Queue: 2 jobs
Job 1
Amino acid sequence: MQRAWIDRLASPRTGAPLELDAIRTADDELVEGFLVSKDEREVWPLIAGVAVLPRDLSEHLAQQGNVYRRSPINDPRLARFLLGRAGTGYVVVPFEEVVGHYRDLASEPPEGYDTSPHPEHVALRGLLAATEAGGVGAFVGSGVGRGVFSLCEQLDAVLGIDRSIACVRRSRNIAVTVEAFFLPAPKGSGLKEIPLDFAALTRTGADFVLGDPEALPLRDGVVDVLVLHGADSLGPWSDADAAWAEAWRVTVEGGWLVWHESLPSASLPSPVLTEGPWRAARRP
């Protein structure tokens, strides 16, 4: 995780500021450690560069324990903290989702392979260009991360927030990988994998955390653009109105709120811009 985000993060329970207890760093990246809320005497882990900040950490670790049990952990304190709580729950990355959102980056596609860009991201980029927004953004319900990279084309830094640690880890791997990255080839193509060319992907400024839409781990008024998808890799949100209230809270006055048409809520404002499934309005 990039150090620059630490001052914008907050306890998902109370909004209290978090302090960093770093265990392992690499250049300006935080790799392992704890984020501490002294007001609550609570801690949240930072593992493999990802801050794990759900509202209910024990429930999260029980439900998605498979990812933590197979994660490389260097510090024994962090290993005891996580593995002592990791349950038998199982979560995976829907790989068809990865293919659908990154197929346009295929550098050596077989004949007949669909390399068209995902229409959601084409529409989102068009809407963002119309807002002429700048600064810092967040994408709530970031899934496998492509929407975050779309925002990075226009904004200085963007934080993806998702409830699936498997998807958050995959998104971060895409953000930082320097080696080749591959998608599975379709059956009958004669290939096992298809390489992706990340040269067309804006990754600078992209980062990802594990968090709940109804309790965003961000301080008040710290993003200029907030994108709400309405669902993530674990399905629709349980309380869309609470997620919308959180979006208002973390966005600066005069900032842009962008939401997907799939977001059901009684609190939605009248959009001033519309493109494809996306709507946008300014925060008063």
Note: Residues 3-83 form one domain.
Job 2
Amino acid sequence: MDEYAAGVTATFSTNKNQLERALELIAMLREDSANLAAEDLHELMRCWENVQRMWQAEVHVRTMLFREETRWPGYYFRSDFPKMDQENWKCFVNAKWDPKSGEWEMSKKPVIELT
């Protein structure tokens, strides 16, 4: 995540190719996670924690891929979309995974300003 999804060692910078590579690596983790095993409840908890972190990492990468803009200052810089686009992207990005199809649905939700 740090190297491909705009972490500190990548100076908070990423692009489409790096995000797609992150998804490839997460897919490998998902495949390997099917073989996790635990000898006790503590290890079982750690197994489930890793599975949950994998899901969180994937949805994070997918939202950054969907949002074709930079969210800097404060979050990350997309070198392939170097500017903030408040007109099109001042919104929340929601992700929904369908377990039947195994597909992600991405959508924009408006930011409601409180006055």
Note: Residues 12 and 74 are 9 Å apart (CA to CA).
